[in-house]
Structure to design on (119 residues):
């Protein structure tokens, strides 16, 4: 039985660009940085940036990393991402279980912002 998530690995084709994205655009701390592997602390969840020769094949398939914005204000975080030139790939969608908004990281990986439902 699994006891939790140890890390999420994200394929990247440009390590420097990926590190800048997760550090500068999302505001996470980079705890390790090498040419083929870097680690980001996303509020206790380790995101491993894994250099691959053909990282572009992963986009729009497989796992999606979902982030919860500070303070839970989705619109403010969307505005901040747009101001930083982040590719927004859809609109905010409202569901019984919360609201999500898709975007991409610097390497074309699918990401989302998520806020839980309000009462």
């Amino acid at each position: 039985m699994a006891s939790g998530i140890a890390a999420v690995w994200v394929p990247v084709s440009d390590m420097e660009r990926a590190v800048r994205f997760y550090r500068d655009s999302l505001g996470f701390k980079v705890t390790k940085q090498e040419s083929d592997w870097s680690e980001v602390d996303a509020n206790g969840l380790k995101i491993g940036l894994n250099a691959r020769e053909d990282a572009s094949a992963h986009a729009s398939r497989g796992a999606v990393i979902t982030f919860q914005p500070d303070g839970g204000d989705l619109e403010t975080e969307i505005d901040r991402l747009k101001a930083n030139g982040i590719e927004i790939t859809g609109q905010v969608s409202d569901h019984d279980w919360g609201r999500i908004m898709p975007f991409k990281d610097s390497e074309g990986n699918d990401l989302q912002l998520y806020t839980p439902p309000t009462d």
